[in-house]
Design goal:
By secondary structure, this protein is of the alpha/beta class. Helices cover 37% and strands 14% of the residues. Helix 1 runs antiparallel to helix 8, helix 9 runs parallel beside helix 12 and helix 10 crosses helix 12. The structure holds pyridoxal-5'-phosphate. Pyridoxal-5'-phosphate binds next to helix 3 and helix 4.
Length: 361
């Protein structure tokens, strides 16, 4: 039985809206669905300014540009994350300064962030990593602009507020494996009117009426066809999050006791990809993969990747990266398949990983 890590499920108006967008001939970065999808996202991001962009990485670049990040500037980034936040900093010629994660929340550690501040530090990118919010009350005390990367945390909450408004600017991704998806897409959100104006300019060539360019911009716009798919997905926001929560519950019931689920220590997290950890991670992942289950070890920490290499130590990031892995998570994953995956993991602990032994069992 082959089971992918993630899968896309259209249960709503995706096809209908996309077809409507195509037929309208508004297929570029303007049109009704751009406006409607941005509007629909406002309550789900806690922000009254939502700018749709081509993808989550562009969202981060635009957010950094809006804060005026330049070559020579330093931006604090957690050592364990998908690489996009660090890459965005580098692409602007600035320096990502890696900070170890908190051993409980797995998000950027605020005390270690404080220790990493220099006279060149201009901002923090806090990632709501694997659906768990970062500790914004503590990060706020560092008195630096905060970019909240909520790409993996659609609908998570911190201090009873939905993620998207805890920093100065937040970034979302709607890539095909994210909870709410339109294939490739992203959003930049803020409640700061001045920043919102800059974001809108930067996304659209830094351009005002009459081809005036008061700032350097890029073209980071989402297309109307993509926004049409996004709007249909946003209409099913709560359903998508609830389904993934149920998947997490089912894993929780059936996973062997040696395998633990990623801890949740404050706020309310969401289950982007079911993330578990154990001391023999590589053995478990290998066994699952041999049986057609697309389980995966999580990211290699940034300090172990060539562009971000440093000799500094990140013990929490290193430990989590050695033990954590992802289990298949998508909106129509049946309980029976989750039980099957868990029974395969049980085989590892029962010493039944030999292919013939299970085939005849
Ligand atoms: C997926 C992801 C991104 C990048 O989003 P894209 O839409 O793929 O460019 C950025 N940050 C984090 C934390 C992510 O998980």
């Amino acid at each position: 039985m082959k089971i992918p890590l993630s899968n896309v499920v259209y249960v709503g108006n995706e096809v209908k809206y996309a077809q409507d967008a195509l037929q309208s001939t508004w297929i570029g970065g303007g049109g009704k669905y751009i406006t409607d999808a941005a509007e629909a996202l406002k309550p789900h991001t806690g922000c009254h300014h939502v700018t749709l962009v081509a993808n989550g990485t562009q969202a981060l670049i635009v957010a950094l540009m809006a804060l005026g990040i330049e070559p020579g500037d330093e931006v604090l980034v957690p050592a364990l994350t998908f690489a996009a936040p660090a890459a965005a900093v580098k692409l602007l010629g600035a320096t990502p300064v890696l900070v170890d994660i908190d051993c409980d929340s797995w998000a950027i550690n605020p005390i270690k962030a404080r220790d990493a501040i220099t006279e060149r530090t201009r901002a923090i990118i806090a990632v709501d990593v694997l659906g768990h919010p970062a500790d914004y009350n503590a990060l706020r005390r560092l008195n630096l602009p905060i970019i909240q990367d909520s790409a993996e945390a659609h609908g998570a909450q911190y201090s009873s507020k939905i993620v998207g408004s805890h920093g100065d600017i937040a970034c979302f991704s709607f890539h095909a494996n994210k909870i709410i998806t339109c294939g490739e897409g992203g959003a930049v959100t803020t409640n700061d009117d001045r920043l919102a104006e800059r974001i809108r300019l930067i996304v659209n060539h830094g351009m005002k009426e009459g081809y005036r360019h008061p700032v350097v911009g890029t073209n980071a716009r989402m297309t109307n066809v993509t926004a049409a798919i996004l709007l249909a997905q946003v209409e099913r926001w709560y359903e998508a999050i609830e389904t993934r929560r149920q998947i997490l519950d089912t894993y929780q019931q059936h996973l062997p006791k040696q395998v633990r689920l990623r801890p949740v220590v404050f706020g309310q997290s969401v289950n982007w990809l079911t993330t578990a950890y154990c001391s023999n991670r590589d053995e478990v992942v290998r066994h699952l993969r041999e049986r057609g289950i697309d389980a995966r070890a999580i990211w290699i920490p940034l300090h172990r990747n060539q562009p971000y290499w440093t000799s500094a130590k990140y013990p929490n990031a290193t430990q989590v990266a050695e033990q954590a892995f992802w289990l298949p998570t998508y909106n129509n994953l049946p309980d029976a398949k989750i039980r099957h995956i868990c029974s395969l993991i049980q085989e590892v602990y029962d010493g039944r990983t030999d292919r013939h032994a299970t085939a005849h069992a």
